[in-house]
UniProtKB/TrEMBL annotation:
The chain crosses the membrane at residues 90-110, 116-135. This is DUF1707 domain-containing protein. InterPro entries: DUF1707_SHOCT-like (IPR012551). Keywords: Membrane, Transmembrane, Transmembrane helix. It holds the Pfam family DUF1707. Residues 9-61 form the DUF1707 domain.
Length: 151
């Protein structure tokens, strides 16, 4: 959906609440006079589309609190992705450990005695790799620099 199409969507309470928060922050920072604040507030409350709500606050900066909330939300999403990845990798590691131990057990039964527990090597190395990945700092994605292809 394009931005122009989104502006034609009917405005809801969250849209109005965000605009009112933006108006109030601008008023308290001295960017708006009381009369202009009241006029814009009335426009926001009477607005029926998102475009009308955005028009009332288009020339005002986004309040610092909203920016901080958006950053906190992004950080929370990143943390959840990291934990999901760690759970997936740990589960794969545990499955591999069970698989290798099963092979070792079958060999030991076939031989008639407990042989050297060789799965310690692949499982240990794999476990160290999973642990190192979990403890390493998050990697930042680099934007690719390249020429745009002409159509």
């Amino acid at each position: 959906m394009t931005d122009d199409a989104a502006r034609g969507i009917r405005a809801g309470e969250p849209d109005r609440d965000a605009a009112i928060e933006r108006l109030t922050a601008s008023f308290t920072e001295g960017r708006l006079e009381l009369a202009e604040y009241d006029t814009r507030l009335a426009k926001v409350m009477d607005a029926t589309t998102v475009g009308e709500v955005e028009a009332a606050v288009a020339d005002l900066p986004v309040p610092r609190a909203q920016v901080e909330r958006m950053e906190a939300d992004k950080q929370l999403v990143r943390q959840r992705k990291k934990w999901r990845k760690l759970r997936r990798e740990t589960g794969q590691w545990a499955g591999g450990a069970v698989f290798f131990t099963g092979i070792w057990g079958a060999i030991s039964i076939a031989v008639g005695e407990a042989t050297f527990y060789w799965p310690v090597f692949p499982v240990g190395i794999w476990g160290v790799a999973v642990l190192a990945d979990a403890l390493s700092p998050a990697k930042k994605k680099k934007k690719k620099k390249g020429k745009k292809k002409s159509a």
